[in-house]
Design brief:
- By secondary structure, the chain is of the alpha+beta class.
- The chain folds into two domains: about 300 residues, Metal-dependent hydrolases (TIM Barrel, Alpha-Beta Barrel); about 120 residues, Immunoglobulin-like (Sandwich).
- It has twelve helices and 23 strands.
Length: about 425
């Protein structure tokens, strides 16, 4: 398997609130803002980008318009229909772009618009019931849920999503969402991020601004656990929710705080595939949960792997594993790729959580990456339920780059990797 790095939850000028609420000046797409998005996808080496524009104006447009193809872009076809596009970056890298939407639900990787007139499309894209899920699947898409922190469990049960967000960047920044749905201080995220606007000598590295508000979204994780405890198979992603509309202040590197490049660099969703350029393989990986979310703000993980062996078979992420085969979960604990040996060492810990059929969540492993045997965790999976892996980090290696801010932000334990689950039956 090859890791394909992707963005799942991304807005273009076909969302009404993108580009500082001016996505369509004079009715045409905001070309400078679109150029920022396209350049960011190339600069940050994204392999797949799942656009998720709001129904205003996404539902009003012809489906092929929503790919925003420019220059040397090429279409990706299924028969006579375009299902994706491919950006050809100047350095030879390519990015596959698919279309989806974000309203109450978030269909991703649609093959076409949902069926109906423009007004009927608007109604479907704003739906949040089982019939809406069926319409998205009929259009070739996956049913995803954004902003899980604000969704009722009853809705999640009804729509039976293929996947949900366990982290959403917008939720962590927006004062109202932080307070109402995450139980966090309303103003601290923006206040912390503004500290990175310092341009004086000794200023902190601007790309580390997310350290001011990166924290686990526990309400979303708890709802995920509840669904897994009911025996449902639910993959996860982390949502960038990038619009270029949240932090227009300029930081010391000459970019706005929420530039597409900065946000897309912070974290991504790794789909494990044979061919990262194959749109159907990426879709299959997300559908089956052969994926994990990684906060590359803290560093790119090197050497990470997790799989299950049992009964002479090896099972990849997202697999259903028979308990009769004496299965064992293996986790290869990663290190930070290319870490400068002169920097302080980060503290990396591998955790395994078991959600049993009664919905009880138990932590069955907690292993320090520095002292574990060969950097590996092995857990016997004798009991049915869902098992997920989480890698956390105290990013002390980033402390020196905070300069005048001091090292306090680099002393907190933060999420680095969330995986989709294995299922034991």
């Amino acid at each position: 398997m090859t890791p394909a790095r992707g963005i799942v939850h991304l807005h273009s000028p076909y969302s009404h609130d993108a580009c500082d609420d001016d996505p369509r000046p004079g009715g045409a797409p905001n070309e400078p803002c679109l150029a920022h998005l396209r350049d960011a996808l190339c600069t940050t080496k994204i392999d797949y980008a799942n656009l998720t524009d709001h129904d205003d104006t996404m539902a009003d447009e012809e489906f092929t318009t929503l790919f925003s193809m420019r220059g040397t872009d090429t279409p990706i076809m299924r028969g006579a229909d375009q299902i994706a596009s491919r950006i050809h970056c100047a350095d030879g890298h390519t990015v596959q772009v698919t279309v989806g939407g974000e309203n109450d639900l978030m269909p991703i990787m649609l093959d076409r618009h949902v069926t109906g007139t423009v007004s009927e499309r608007h109604a479907i894209y704003n739906g949040n019931d089982a019939a809406t899920s069926a319409a998205y699947r009929d259009a070739g898409g996956l049913v995803w849920v954004a902003h899980t922190e604000s969704k009722d469990l009853s809705t999640l049960r009804e729509v039976q999503p293929d996947g949900i967000e366990v982290y959403n960047l917008h939720a962590n920044i927006d004062p109202n969402i932080r307070e109402q749905y995450l139980g966090l201080d309303s103003a601290s995220a923006i206040a912390g991020a503004v500290e990175f606007a310092d341009t004086n000598p000794g200023h902190p590295e601007p790309d580390l601004a997310m350290l001011a508000f990166l924290t686990p979204n526990q309400p979303a994780i708890m709802k995920w656990h509840a669904l897994l405890g009911e025996g449902r198979h639910v993959a996860i992603t982390a949502g960038s929710d990038a619009h270029e509309n949240a932090l227009p202040i300029m930081l010391a590197d000459g970019e706005r705080g929420d530039s597409y490049r900065r946000v897309l660099r912070w974290f991504g969703n790794i789909a494990l595939v044979a061919d990262p350029s194959d749109v159907d393989q990426v879709k299959s990986a997300l559908r089956t949960g052969r994926n994990f979310a990684v906060f590359e703000l803290l560093g790119t993980p090197d050497g990470f792997d997790t799989y299950v062996t049992g009964g002479g078979t090896t099972y990849e992420l997202g697999s259903t594993v028979p308990s009769a085969g004496t299965p064992v979960l293996h986790v290869d604990i990663p290190v930070v790729r290319g870490l400068d040996p002169s920097l302080p060492l980060p503290a990396i810990v591998a955790k395994v959580f078991w959600i049993d059929r009664a919905g009880v969540v138990q932590q069955v492993a907690n292993v320090d990456g520095q002292i574990s045997s060969n950097g590996q965790v092995n857990v016997n999976l004798g009991a049915p339920g869902a098992y997920r892996v989480e890698i956390t980090m105290v990013p002390r290696h980033l402390g020196p780059y905070l300069h005048d801010l001091g090292t306090e932000m680099a002393e907190a334990e933060l999420p680095w990797i969330y995986t989709s689950p294995f299922y034991v039956e």
